[in-house]
Specification:
Blueprint lengths: L2 H24 L7 E6 L2 E6 L10 H15 L6 E6 L4 E3 L4 H10 L3 H18 L4 E5 L2 E3 L1 H4 L6 E4 L4 E3 L13 H4 L7 H8 L3 E2 L1 H5 L5 E2 L5 H9 L6 H13 L15 H7 L5 H11 L2 H12 L2 H14 L4 H17 L2 H11 L17 H7 L11
Parallel strand pairs: 2-3, 3-5, 4-6, 5-7, 6-8, 7-10
Antiparallel strand pairs: 1-2, 8-9
EC number: 3.1.2.4
Family: Belongs to the enoyl-CoA hydratase/isomerase family.
GO molecular function, one term: 3-hydroxyisobutyryl-CoA hydrolase activity
């Protein structure tokens, strides 16, 4: 075979290999689900999958992370703004169906998704540039991870926040073990175990959002933010404060859990999930009975993992919490409740999961401990 033919064959092979690599990289760029733009002084991230409530998938994470790091070190970029397209959702969570399918067959996505999502969560938490999340609409699970660790989180009357993972055999991840125990009293544990939903101004009153601004003022706020000249965090804070001061909607309504906060602190103060359930049943009030009923529908394994996750996370840094949560995510991938929960809630929608074990008493302390065990070389590294 002549040298020319060999050279041509080599070039063709190299070209094919390059096209395969580019195809893998570009498959997400045809419709990446996320728009990344420079507007004025700001790097603007728009989560752009409105038809699926801006659900977060791995290609989106792989677009956002490098751009965030680039903006962080770019002298021309002063702030980062993240927003959701479509008006209904900021981000309703991770693309759980894809993760479920991957986990069933041992596809690497079940590792890669959680690992890269948590690395992005950490990068948001440590971002040196002021990071402003406009959390209008549904903000749950993965959407909370894209927002709550940033310096500023702006809720509107359309915001709907929840960490509903215990209902699908998972746990409130994306750094839930860090921010939830830092909310007032036992509120974080209550939200984590029950998946209770907060709406509008209550998201800010709970401490999940830093500000509340009426929906109709958001585009005007955005324009003012991107037009700022070399703003400091204090400058941004002043702008957000002024918009909040102009937003009187629902200001006279009390916090939805206001009359229950002392009950939550009392009833959810226990050394175990079983103790919390006993407290609720013994109390017998309408509120306590409702929470007991809610907990009875959740995965017993998830409830116990979540309780321990928040107890530990209260004293850990965000990065250490995410290392712990990555271990928990992989324990859930190895277990059965996650797949059953997704089937029941998201696929068949019969809302009748068959948990295994089916009671709190059957979930041994040893099995919970194992979920927190090191993965050795497969542990999450930063």
């Amino acid at each position: 075979m002549s040298l020319t033919v060999l050279t041509s064959a080599y070039r063709l092979r190299s070209l094919c290999r390059l096209q395969r690599i580019q195809g893998h990289m570009m498959s997400s760029q045809v419709d990446p689900g996320v728009l990344l733009e420079k507007v004025g002084c700001a790097g603007v991230i728009t989560i752009n999958r409105p038809k699926v409530l801006n659900a977060l998938n791995l290609p989106m994470i792989r677009h956002i992370y490098p751009q965030l790091k680039k903006w962080e070190s770019d002298n021309e970029t002063d702030i980062v703004i993240i927003r959701g397209a479509g008006g209904k959702a900021f981000c309703a969570g991770g693309d759980i169906r894809a993760v479920t399918e991957a986990g069933k067959v041992g596809d690497p996505l079940a590792e890669d998704f959680f690992r890269e999502e948590y690395i992005l969560n950490s990068a948001i938490g440590s971002c040196r540039k002021p990071y402003i999340a406009l959390i209008e609409g549904i903000t749950m699970g993965g959407g909370v991870g894209l927002s709550v660790h940033g310096r500023f989180r702006v809720a509107t009357e359309k915001t709907l926040f929840a960490m509903p993972e215990t209902a699908i055999g998972l746990f409130p991840d994306v750094g839930g073990g860090h921010f939830l125990p830092r909310l007032q009293g036992q509120l974080g544990l209550f939200l984590a175990l029950t998946g209770f939903r907060l709406k509008g101004r209550d998201v800010q009153r709970a401490g999940v959002a830093t500000h509340f601004v009426e929906s109709q003022k958001i585009s005007e706020l955005e324009k003012e933010l991107v037009d700022l000249k070399s703003p400091s965090a204090e400058d941004i804070s002043r702008v957000l404060d002024s918009y909040q001061d102009q937003s009187a909607l629902d200001a006279d309504k009390p916090f939805v859990l206001d009359q229950h906060m002392s009950d939550i602190d009392r009833l959810f103060s226990s050394s175990s999930v079983e103790g919390i359930v006993q407290n609720l049943k013994a109390d017998g009030s309408e509120f306590a009975n409702k929470q007991a009923k809610t907990l009875s529908r959740m995965s017993p394994t998830s409830l116990k993992i979540t309780y321990k996750q928040l107890q530990a996370g209260a004293a850990l840094s965000l990065q250490d919490v995410l290392v712990m949560e990555y271990r928990l995510s992989q324990a859930c991938m190895r277990g059965c409740d996650f797949y059953e929960g997704v089937r029941s809630v998201l696929i068949d929608k019969d809302q009748n999961p068959k948990w295994n074990p089916s009671t709190l008493e059957e979930v041994s302390e040893e099995s919970v401990e194992q979920c927190f065990s090191s993965l050795g070389e497969k542990d999450l590294m930063f």
